[in-house]
Structure formats: C-alpha cells, structure tokens
Design a protein that fits this description.
By secondary structure, this protein is α+β, with helices and mostly antiparallel strands. The protein contains five helices and eight strands; from the N terminus they run ββααβββαβαββα. Helix 3 runs antiparallel to helix 5. Its EC number is 2.-.-.-.
Length: about 210
C-alpha cells in the first residue's frame, strides 16, 4: 500500500498526499453531520479516520489528498480523485469535506482549480465528473457554480450511513469546457474577500 506522489499548491492552499498520520489533525474537524451525505460511515475516532485513509490508499484509481493551508500547514479538509481510467480519459472528483471554519472563502474553489488543472493539463483527460446526494442541494449548487454541467439523476443509487437510500446527481466538465471553467474560477478567486462565504464547499460530494 503506497501513497501517490502528487502535490498541488496555489491560492493559499496545498493538496498533499493523504497519510494515516494526518488523522490526528483531520479527525477533530469532522463529525456525523458533516459526513451525513457520504456513502461511508463517519469515522468516529482518530484511529478510525486513519483506517479510512488506509482504505483510500488501498483503492485502485483513487488519489486521496489532505487539504492544508499552504503557509501554516494547518489541515482544512480532504478531497480525492477517484475512478481514474487513463485509457478512457476520465476521472471523478469527490469524497470532499472541509472543517466548518473553512466552508467558505477560497478553499473549495482553489482546491477544484488545482484538481481540474491537473486532470486536464497534466493527465490530459477528456472529462471530469462530480456527483452528490440528490438531497444535498448545497452540494449541487456548489458543483454547478464550478461551471459543471448537470448530466442527470441516478435513481436509488446510494445508501447513506443512516441506511437511507437516495438518488445521485451527476455533473461533468469536458476538456473543451475547461478553459472557460478555469477562467471563471480564477475570477472568483481573485475577487473573493477574506472570510467571504461566497463559495460553499460541496461536502460529501460522492
């Protein structure tokens, strides 16, 4: 079981390969409410969160990142690439969460700008998909604000940790759409006021 070696940095944040040792700093930022729209149960302790990261590292096609403040190294949350299929030129972004203090401002759009840039400009993928629980209107709005196009609803597609069954909303960004999406994100980031809550995180977008 080995971690990937991708590190992305810009707009005040750094995405570094997730490691079980991040659990002590990351887990206190989580909670059952934050995790309620994920498809996996909330890891209810530091050790459980470390095990969660270990499972991510063992999953083929999944690249887990810890999101940090680029200057201080303070953990803000986590995000992933997953279902990366190089031969088909596609990948998804999700399993994203941020501590409540960081659910706003530049953290989420900056992370998405870095991830999308890597996907389209380094990996050269044709499409990036994002998904969310259909009940999570906040996530759906946040994904659309990135510039992603709604693709449809998969009915009864996910089971939440509480056992409830829900639909999944799918969105995508295509390679020829990326320049406009990138410009939009860069404009938002350059105009964002410190502490503004204009950019809500799409927490639990997988």
């Amino acid at each position: 079981m080995t971690a990937h070696d991708i590190t992305l940095e810009g707009h005040g944040i750094r995405l570094s390969p997730a490691d079980p040792s991040d659990a002590a700093a990351a887990w206190p930022l989580t909670g059952p409410d934050l995790w309620s729209r994920m498809t996996t149960p909330w890891p209810a302790s530091v050790d459980a969160y470390a095990a969660h990261v270990e499972r991510q590292l063992a999953t083929p096609g999944l690249f887990a990142f810890t999101v940090r403040d680029a200057g201080t190294g303070v953990v803000r949350g986590s995000t992933t690439f997953y279902e990366y299929v190089p031969a088909q030129g596609r990948v998804e972004i999700g399993t994203t969460w941020y501590g409540r203090t960081f659910q706003g401002g530049k953290t989420n759009p900056a992370a998405k700008l870095l991830l999308l840039g890597h996907a389209f400009e380094t990996w050269g993928v044709n499409r990036v998909a994002l998904r969310c629980d259909a009940r999570n209107e906040r996530s759906a709005r946040a994904i659309e604000r990135l510039g992603a196009t709604p693709e449809g609803r998969l009915r009864r597609h996910r089971v939440a940790p509480d056992g409830s069954v829900a639909d999944t909303l799918y969105f995508s960004i295509l390679r020829d759409e990326w320049p406009d999406v990138r410009a939009g994100l860069e404009t938002r980031l350059s105009s964002a006021e410190p502490g503004a809550r204009a950019f809500d995180a799409e927490t639990a977008a997988r």
